[in-house]
């Protein structure tokens, strides 16, 4: 049996690393806020939303960065651009450079709306897929990002079950939905007064991959007051394969209060070495009784060339002499690869990726990238292929057996409902097989 091992081809260029910079306290230069989203407008200007703003709209911040490290040097506020509508718990914001428009997601109405650069609504609303029809209160659209290279707008809901969705920037139609699994909690929540765990924000990269920030916040009656942040890079099509880029924690202490619940993230300008600045903004709950600070944070997002070959699963079991769904090689740069099978008495694979199953047994299928032909560093991806005995189909999938004259055991129709009086020449299921009755 021959099956084509399909190769996904995404336009990509790099494997990313992140260099962390210190937090920056902007409490002396911006209004006390509940900042929940940030997007880069170009130069040193950023649009920022607060989920407790008096009306629906956004601030304009100026953020000066060090051109080498990307560290934040200063932050200032230019003012608030109101839409004129009542506040709707704005959470995420994304700028579309080629149109000069912005999108803002709100948890108050669980809608994503379009705005002009002066803050006015255009009337366009992103049509959302049914998976978001029943989002819980205060756990809806926390994240929003747009990338001008891929022309995709991305969002996801905050808590489990998480679905990441991409929209076309022209007609705003849903072009892909991807499930995402949040890490297990790291904190013991048995004595928690306040606890939150979910996706804080998302950032779309030029190559079609995403950065996701998982954050877990815990407040107990006695000692623990902390927020743990994990920054992952994922390919949406392989969202179960999460690559941790950065992990940091902030804490509330009397003499060293760094508590920061980061909810917004965006790419910033290129730095001198060609890397990108990455900015985060935290929700201080309006500085909560004067105890919290309006923190921002930056990082340096660098990249190195890498083939990034990957298979979704490490083990695949398939039946001999029956159709099956082959593993798909994730090859984001479309690099030339060489295929091989460790036991060619079980299965062979040719250099076009065609797989042939021969006998029951186990073999390892490997795809290899050669630097001499690909221009990328050497890389391999492999999985264990278990070829097992054919499984005889039953029920509605079984072949139609010879005519059954009398039903001596229970008979069911093709929808699984028991039939007391089978009809002449109709097809039924009896003892797990299909029969024609007469």
- Spatial ordering of strands, largest sheet: 3-22-21-20
Largest sheet entry:
4 strands, antiparallel
How many beta-strand segments?
A: 32
Distance, first to last CA: 37 Å
How does the overall form come out from the CA principal axes? Answer: globular
- The percentage helix is under 10%
Task: Estimate the strand proportion.
Answer: over 45%
Query: What's the number of helices?
Result: 1
Return the average pLDDT rounded to an integer.
87
Radius of gyration (CA) equals 27 Å
Structural class: mainly beta
Poorly predicted runs: 1-13
Show the helix and strand layout:
Layout: E1 2-4, E2 7-8, E3 15-25, E4 35-42, E5 45-50, E6 55-65, E7 72-86, E8 90-96, E9 101-106, E10 111-115, E11 121-125, E12 141-147, E13 152-157, E14 162-168, E15 174-180, E16 192-204, E17 210-220, E18 225-234, E19 243-251, E20 261-270, E21 276-283, E22 295-304, E23 315-319, E24 329-330, E25 338-341, E26 347-349, E27 354-357, E28 361-369, H1 371-374, E29 379-388, E30 411-412, E31 427-430, E32 433-436
Parallel strand pairs: 2-24, 23-29
Antiparallel strand pairs: 1-27, 3-22, 4-5, 5-6, 6-7, 8-9, 9-10, 10-11, 12-13, 13-14, 14-15, 16-17, 17-18, 18-19, 20-21, 21-22, 25-28, 26-27, 28-29, 30-31, 31-32
């Amino acid at each position: 049996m021959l099956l084509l091992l399909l190769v996904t081809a995404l336009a990509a260029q790099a494997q990313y690393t992140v260099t962390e910079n210190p937090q920056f306290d902007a409490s002396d230069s911006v209004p006390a806020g509940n900042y929940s989203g940030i997007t880069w407008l170009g130069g040193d200007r950023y649009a920022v939303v607060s989920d407790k703003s008096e009306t629906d709209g956004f601030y304009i911040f100026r953020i000066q960065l060090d051109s080498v490290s990307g560290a934040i040097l200063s932050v200032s506020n230019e003012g608030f651009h109101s839409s004129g509508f009542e506040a709707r718990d704005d959470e995420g914001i994304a700028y579309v450079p080629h149109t000069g428009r912005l999108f803002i997601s709100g948890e108050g109405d669980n809608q994503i709306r379009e705005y002009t650069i002066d803050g006015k609504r255009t009337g366009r609303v992103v049509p959302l897929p049914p998976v978001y029809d029943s989002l819980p209160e205060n756990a809806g659209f926390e994240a929003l990002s747009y990338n001008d290279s891929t022309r995709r707008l991305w969002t996801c809901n905050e808590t489990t079950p998480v679905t990441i969705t991409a929209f076309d920037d022209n007609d705003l139609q849903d072009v892909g939905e991807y499930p995402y699994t949040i890490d297990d909690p790291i904190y013991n929540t048995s004595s928690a007064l306040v606890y939150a765990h979910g996706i804080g924000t998302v950032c779309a990269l030029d190559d079609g991959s995403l950065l996701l920030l998982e954050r877990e916040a815990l407040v107990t009656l006695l000692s623990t007051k902390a927020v743990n942040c994990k920054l992952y890079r994922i390919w949406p099509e392989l969202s179960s394969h999460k690559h941790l880029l950065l992990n940091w924690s902030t804490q509330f202490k009397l003499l060293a209060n760094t508590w920061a619940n980061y909810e917004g993230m965006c790419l910033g300008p290129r730095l001198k070495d060609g890397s990108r600045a990455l900015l985060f903004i935290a929700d201080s709950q309006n500085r909560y009784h004067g105890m919290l600070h309006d923190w921002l944070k930056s990082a340096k997002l660098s990249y190195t060339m890498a083939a990034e070959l990957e298979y979704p699963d490490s083990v695949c079991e398939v039946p001999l002499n029956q159709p099956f769904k082959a593993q798909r090689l994730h090859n984001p740069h479309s690099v030339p690869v060489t295929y091989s099978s460790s036991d060619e008495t079980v299965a062979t694979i040719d250099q076009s990726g065609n797989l042939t199953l021969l006998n029951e047994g186990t073999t390892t299928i490997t795809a290899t990238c050669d630097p001499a032909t690909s221009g990328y560093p050497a890389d391999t991806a492999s999985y264990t292929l278990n070829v097992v005995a054919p499984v005889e189909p039953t029920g509605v999938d079984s072949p139609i057996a010879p005519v059954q004259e009398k039903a001596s055991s229970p008979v069911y129709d093709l929808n699984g409902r028991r039939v007391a009086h089978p009809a002449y020449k109709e097809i039924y299921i009896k003892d797990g097989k299909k029969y024609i009755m007469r």
